[in-house]
Amino acid sequence: MNLVIDIGNTAAKIAVFDETKLVETIYGDNHSLAELPDIAKKYPLQKGILASVITLTDEVQAQLGALGIKILHVGADTPIPIINLYKTPQTLGMDRLAAVIAANELCPGKDLLVIDAGTCITYDFIDATGKYRGGNISPGINMRLKALHGFTDKLPLVSPHGEIPLWGDTTETAIRAGVVHGVEVEIEGYIRQTEENHPSLCVFLTGGDGGVALNGINEKKNIFADRNLVLKGLNRILNYNDTLS
User: Fold this and answer.
1) Is the residue at 199 inside a domain?
2) Annotated catalytic residue 95
């Protein structure tokens, strides 16, 4: 079985795959991976893959070393099953790359826009020939809410969960509606602009804030929501590299 670890800015996502089938997903602390010993006892792990956007702590390194299996640390030089046209691949987040790889695997031969609504909102495009063309990075919902509070003297820190009217009638609802509707309009704009050049575009939405961000988007559009897209992409990279060895 495959162990897949995606360490983000706020949490770690750990998954177990039986070849291509997702068996279990666990969310944990990105600085400890304390769940790994129990996972190793529960499943006969054979190989693993790790992608991280943060520097690994000594505790995480120790947890990985204790597993006794080969762990592929994904980087710019890791072989992948698509063509990467990003001009600075060493600066590209492997979570972004994994997401487009998964989308390409799920919908081969299609122009794809992958939107990951997490700490940041990333927009990544891979064309129908399997060429990753690049993408954009924008502040996520919670980052926008914290910025409004942190860069002003009197605006409060507001939760993204709660009443979201078209027009806020309190400062709290004005901030929440402004941020959430702003993200929705931003996402719709990227989809609309990309569709102008790629009419048969398929869109994948993933990430922890995906449900919030999708609320106001036209459901008739060709949009697929998949919270595990990055994990599936990392597993695809792991299996691909296994065929090369």
Assistant:
1) yes
2) yes
